[in-house]
Task: structure prediction
Amino acid sequence: MVDSKQQWKAWLYLAPAIVLLLVFTVWPIINTVRMAFLENYSGLKAAGGATFQFGLGNFEKVIGYRRFVSCLKNTVLLCLLTVPISTILALLIAVALNSIKVCQKALQTIFFLPYVTNSIAIGMVFAAMFNIVGSFYGTQNEIIVTAGIINNVIQFFGGEPINWINYGSTYEANMLVMTVYIVWNALPFKILVLLGGLQSINKQYYDAAKVDGTSRRRIFTRITVPLLSPMIAYVVITGFIGGFKEYTSIVGIFGEKMGPPDDAGRLNTMVGFIYDALSTNSQGRASAAALILFGIILVVTMINMQVSKKRVHY
Amino acid sequence: MSKETNATMHARDMQKLTAAQRVMKFFSISGTYLFLGLMALIVLFPFYWMIISSLKTLDEYRMSTPTFWPRVIMLSNYLDAFTTASLGRLFLNTMYVGLVSTILSLVITILTAFAFARLEFKGKETLFALLLATMMIPGELFTITNYSTVTNLGWINTYTVLIVPFLVSVFYIYLLRQNFLQIPNELYLAAKVDGTSDWKYLWKVMVPLALPTLISITILKMMGAWNSYIWPRLVANDEAHRMITNGLRNAFTETTGDVNYPVQMAAVALVSAPLFLVFVFLRKYIMSGVSRSGIKG
Result:
C-alpha cells in the first residue's frame, strides 16, 4: 500500500521537472498541432486579435512551395548519400580496429576525435579546405590566387581543379562537399557503437569458423554482420533521424545563406525551412512543416524497424 | 614404421599450413593497418590543416603551392582572432550559461530520477513511458511554440532564455534512473531501518554511487552549451548574451572583400581547444555517455 504521505513526497521530487516539461514540452506539442491546423496562423496577427480558420491550408501551402520541395529533396538526398556511406565505412573501420592489437586504443581515440568538435567551427575548416582563395570573393570577377588544398591535391594527381563552394559552383559539387563533411562528422558515433558491438561477440563463433577453414569474407558476411545486425540497425536508424534534422553542418560550410553566393538557399533543409518560416512569423506554416518532418521521421524509423526485424538475427 | 612417417608427414603439413597462413596473416594485418592509417589521416587532416593555416601569414596561406609547415610562425593570428571575434566575452557568456544550466539540470535530473527509481506513487510507469515517448519528437517542433512562450515571458536577450527551456532532459533522467536502479534495494531498506530520510539517503548514498553517470551528463551538457547554435541565434543574439558558436559564425560571415583565413582558422582553433582538452582528460565518460545516446551534445 502506498500511503498518501509518500505520494506527496514523490510529487514534490518530480515537481520541478513536471512544471518545466508542461511549459516547454507538453504545451508546445499541443500548440504546434493547433497552429498547424489554423490556416495562415501568425503569432503577430493573433496578438492583434485576428482569428484563423480551421483547415489543412498550411499543409497545402507548405507542400506547394517550390522552396519546400527543394528543402525536402536536399534533406532526403543527403540522408540517402551519407547514411549508407558512413555506415559501411564505420563498419569496415570497426572490424579492422577489432582485429588488431597494437595501437588499437590510440587509433580508436583518433577515430572518435571528430565527435568532440563544434560542427559550425569545423565546417569552417572544411570550407577553407575546399575554398578557392582569391580577392573579390563572391563576385563574378573572382581572381583566383590559390585553388585551395583539396584542389591542390587534385592537381597534384593530374586532375582539373573544381569549383566546390564558391561563386558559380554546381549543385553536384556542393552536395559532394556536404556529403564528405557529414560522413566525416557521422563516423565517430557509428564506429564507437559498432566496435562496442563487435567486442561483445562471443569469440567461440570465430574459433568454430577457423576450425572449419572459413574464408575471411565468409566470416565477415556470415558471422560478423548477422551478429552485429542489432547495432547496425541502431546506427542506421539514429543516422536517418539525425540526417533528417541536418542543418548546422550546412551553416558551417556555406554560412546562413545556405548556398553558394550566387544561389542562396540552394542547400536549405527541412529544419532550415522551419526556421525561415518562424523568422517571418508564419508559425502556422512552420508548425505544418515541423509536423511533416515528424511524420517523415516516424515513417522512416518504422520502415527501418520493419526491415531490421526481418534482417536482424536475434 | 608407417605410423611414424604418417605422424611426421602430418606434422610437416601442419607446419606448411602455418607458414602459408603466416604469409597470409602478414598481408592481411599490414593491409588492415594501411587501411586504418589512411582513414586516420583523413580524419585528422582537417585538424592539422586548421592548426597549420592558423599559424601562417596571409601571404603564405595564399601561395599557389601550399606549404605543409608554416615558414614564419604567426602566433599573433591568435591575438587577432581573439579581438576580431571578441572571443573573451563569448567565452564568458558560454561558460556562464553552461555552468548554471549544468548545475540546475543536474539537481532536477537527480530529483526526478530518484522519484522514478525509488519512490512509489500512482501512475509511475505510465508517466515514465510518456516521458520516454517525447524523446521521439524532433526538437524543432518544440522550438516554434517555445519561441512565442519566451517572447511572451519577456525573456528575449537574457541568460534565462538560454538556460531554462533546456533544463529537463528526458534522456539524462532515463540514464540516471537506470543507474539508480542498479544500486541494491537492501541499501535503501537498511537506511530506512536506521531512520535515514529519503533526502539524506539520496545525497549521501545514491549520488556518490552514481558519480560516473553524473560526470557523463555534466560533460554532455557543457558540450551542448558550447555547440548550441540554432536556439541562441533565435532568442539571444545581442552582444551581451551571444554564445561562442554564434559569435564565431557571425564574426567571419564574409559579405564583401577578402577573408583573412589564417585569423579565421585561429579563431576556430581557439573555440575547438576546450573541447579537445575535455576530451583528453575525460574521454572515458564522454564515450560511455555518447554510446548510449546517439545525440550530439
In short: The mean pLDDT of chain B is 85.
